[in-house]
Design a protein that fits this description.
- The chain is an alpha+beta fold.
- Helix content is 25%, strand content 29%.
- The chain is built from 6 helices and 14 strands.
- Strand 4 and strand 5 form a beta hairpin.
- The model has no long low-confidence stretch (mean pLDDT 91).
């Protein structure tokens, strides 16, 4: 007979493991899977103690039998009376998302529904969210383009790279291949660049939109020569189609691009 809160189960290969769960505030909560009955039982006992204690997330012990994510879930449920399956701790106007003990992200409360249902994962230094069977780069949710460079294309106003509240994110360059440049005299222009065996300068333009269109024009040229290359085009929603077409025709780009070898 299993210990309280522990259930024996079997993997497809016949290997036995143990699951722990308990009921708190009329909510039946899974505590996770464990290799031994003793470990699962300790997790069950600790969960009961935790929900009656005043322990904070920062006091998570290194030898805690509960998985860290589940520890966060239980502390939030205990303190805020809201059960959320992901490792989130609520504040008044924002919330923390604990990717692990050292990476604690901060989001606006408006994003709570999304991150309550979508789990954040990390791979190769990038953050992803599984959405409709696809891996979506978390940065794209905040207008940060693929391959954007921190402090060149975007920045965190308070210098906290874990603070994803909307007011803390400034998009410096919102278009693919466009870089804002401030001259010594204070004037601003925009350089368009494209990746062809390294960054290749398309030209320098007085407006962000013109640089974005120049980039699109360069992409069209490169793809005619090398259709296997993958680029994302810019969508300029501030221009009517006729105005876009007119600028596309008139904008000049580097002559070297026009003579690329096929």
């Amino acid at each position: 007979m299993n210990k309280a809160g522990v259930f024996t189960t079997t993997k497809k290969n016949g290997e036995i493991y143990y699951r722990a769960s308990f009921t708190y505030k009329n909510k039946h909560i899974s505590l996770g899977s464990y290799p031994t009955e003793d470990t699962a039982s300790k997790a069950y006992d600790y969960a009961r103690i935790l929900t009656k204690s005043g322990l904070s997330i920062e006091e998570y012990p290194t030898d805690c039998p509960l998985h860290f994510e589940k520890y966060v879930v239980l502390v939030n449920f205990r303190d805020n009376h809201v059960y959320i399956k992901n490792p989130i701790y609520l504040q008044k106007r924002f919330f923390y998302y604990y990717l692990d003990r050292n990476r604690i992200y901060k989001f606006d409360i408006e994003d709570l529904f999304y991150y309550s249902e979508h789990k954040i994962s990390s791979r190769g230094g990038h953050l992803f969210v599984a959405d409709y069977g696809m891996q979506i780069n978390l940065h794209s949710r905040y207008g940060i383009k693929k391959n954007a460079v921190l402090n060149r294309d975007y920045r965190f106003i308070n210098n906290d790279i874990y603070d994803f509240r909307y007011e803390n994110i400034e998009i410096i360059n919102k278009y693919h291949g466009v870089r804002k440049n401030t001259c010594k005299n204070g004037t601003v222009n925009y350089k368009a660049v494209i990746l062809i065996n390294g960054n290749y300068t398309i030209g320098v333009y007085p407006t962000e939109e013109m640089a974005a269109i120049a980039y699109n024009k360069a992409v069209d040229i490169v793809k005619r020569i090398s259709p296997e290359k993958k680029y994302e085009l810019n969508y300029i929603d501030t221009l009517a189609p006729s105005a876009y077409a007119d600028l596309y025709t008139k904008i000049k780009i580097s002559e070297k691009l026009l003579t690329l070898p096929s």
